[in-house]
Amino acid sequence: MDESLSRADQVTHALREAILLGIWKPRECLPGEREIASRLGVNRSSVRAGLKQLEQLRLVAIRPGGRATVIPPEDASIEVLRHLPDAGDASTGWWRSSSSTAARC
Description:
The protein has helices at residues 7-20, 33-40, 44-56, 93-96; strands at residues 60-62, 68-70. With 105 residues, it is mainly alpha-helical. The protein has a single domain (7-82), classed as Winged helix-like DNA-binding domain superfamily/Winged helix DNA-binding domain (Arc Repressor Mutant, subunit A). A two-stranded antiparallel sheet has the order 1-2. The longest helix is centred in the N-terminal third of the chain and has 14 residues, at 7-20. It starts with 6 loop residues before the first helix and ends in a 9-residue tail after the last helix.
């Protein structure tokens, strides 16, 4: 991950890229905060802040007491479009190597 970014921004970047590459499909739940934190080597507060940023971009919906659910890309913020060229980036290898499947909401 890019060390010049804050931890929350690193989380946002990594999850955004994975979502845009289709690692998680619309209406699928992301893994829990603990699992994301463990895989990215950050703390849960950084994950929480990163998920809030994704919610502001309208890439995920966060339900109280629940996990983040991927929103269909056509409903995402226009801000997301400027990141589409980066979607071919290999930065999502942290997730692809996982044997984990999509989480249930």
